[in-house]
Amino acid sequence: MADDQKNGSGASPNEQINRDELPFVAPCRDLEPLAPIGWVREGLADFRKAPVQGTIIGVFSTVLIAVICALAWTYGSFWFLFAMLGGFVFLAPLACVGTYAISAQIERGERVSTARMFRAAFKRYIGNELVFALVLLIIFLVWARAGSAISIFFPVESDYELGDLVSYLTVGTTVGAIFTAITFSASAFSLPMIMHRDVDTITAVVTSINAVLRNKLAMFVWMSLILIGLVIGIATAFVGLIFILPLVGFAAWHGYLDTIDASAFPRHEVGITAKPRKGKSDLSGL
To answer: What is the pTM of this model?
Structure first.
């Protein structure tokens, strides 16, 4: 299949690259504060062009989240919830890469193939996806440990004062916000970069963190849009998530292309992104 053939003929271009000379981090562009709104608009256009594949990803992700919430609510066990969330951390990247594969096919003027979408998610980049999931799992483990440590601030006396409760909530909210920011910064652009270019997971994560730190206002808007979408999806008994989750994935891909200049890194030898977008040169890095 074309998807499994090398880009070009003769020796692989990646064989001529000295990886020791590659930059440690890909540079990023300065974003307008409302740039994420444009990403959502482009993501919506992709969803309209591939409604079946987008819905498949939406159903997969929504069912996974709904099962985790239902089991946690039924059994009420912290360790059970921890195990389920740990599994979700490993499965979520598969859904994300699926949406990126759809958008990449669309922008290259190709017919959207469900088979290529699944191959990208479950085969083509599975190694880097699992390393990325491991990074997130480590963050989650530290987060869970920090969350249990916060319990020492909870007022146990029956006649505690309001100030004691405020202190507990303040500490808990602060710690949660810190770990949320770390997770968001590490994942905002890392998986799209892994899909787009032949890079290792650490380079992609560091690139993502650097881009978020240099575009704080725009990324705050992006994170706010994601949170609003999740609240709407949950408020509609998870039905809305079937549409919102893949839309976020499509938009994240366009956000990556709008933010990261990965032209210094080699393309994948095979796969959807082995060739540039339709009408784009290699010099653009797209």
So the answer is: 0.84
Residue 4: pLDDT band (50, 70, 90) is very low
Please answer whether residues 157 and 216 qualify as being in contact, where contact means their C-beta atoms are separated by less than 8 angstroms.
Answer: no
Q: Are the CB atoms for 52 and 242 separated by under 8 Å?
A: no
Taking the C-alpha atoms of residue 224 and residue 4, their distance in angstroms, rounded to an integer, is: 39
Spatial distance between the Cα atoms of 175 and 67, rounded to a whole number of angstroms: 27
Confidence label for 123 from pLDDT (cuts 50, 70 and 90): confident
Q: How far apart are CA 80 and CA 248, in angstroms?
A: 28
The CB density around residue 33, as the number of other CB atoms within 10 Å, is 13
CA distances (Å), 203 to each of 27, 81, 103, 235, in order? 11, 31, 23, 37
By the 8 A CB rule, do 146 and 179 touch?
yes
Cross-strand bridge partners of residue 260: 28
Segment 74-101, tens digit of pLDDT: 776 555 566 556 556 656 777 888 999 9
Contact indicator for 195, 100 with CB cutoff of 8 Å: yes
- Domain limits of the chain? 27-154+161-277
Tokens of 180: 């949320």
Residue 139: DSSP 8-state: H
Structure tokens at 37: 């709104």
pLDDT given at position 53: 94
Q: Is 32 left (phi over 0), alpha (psi -120 to 50) or beta?
A: beta
Q: What's the whole-number average pLDDT of the chain?
A: 82
The residue type of 104 is A
CA distance 150 to 243: 36
**Four-residue CA torsion sign, 261, 185, 134, 102:** negative
pLDDT at 1 (0 to 100) = 47
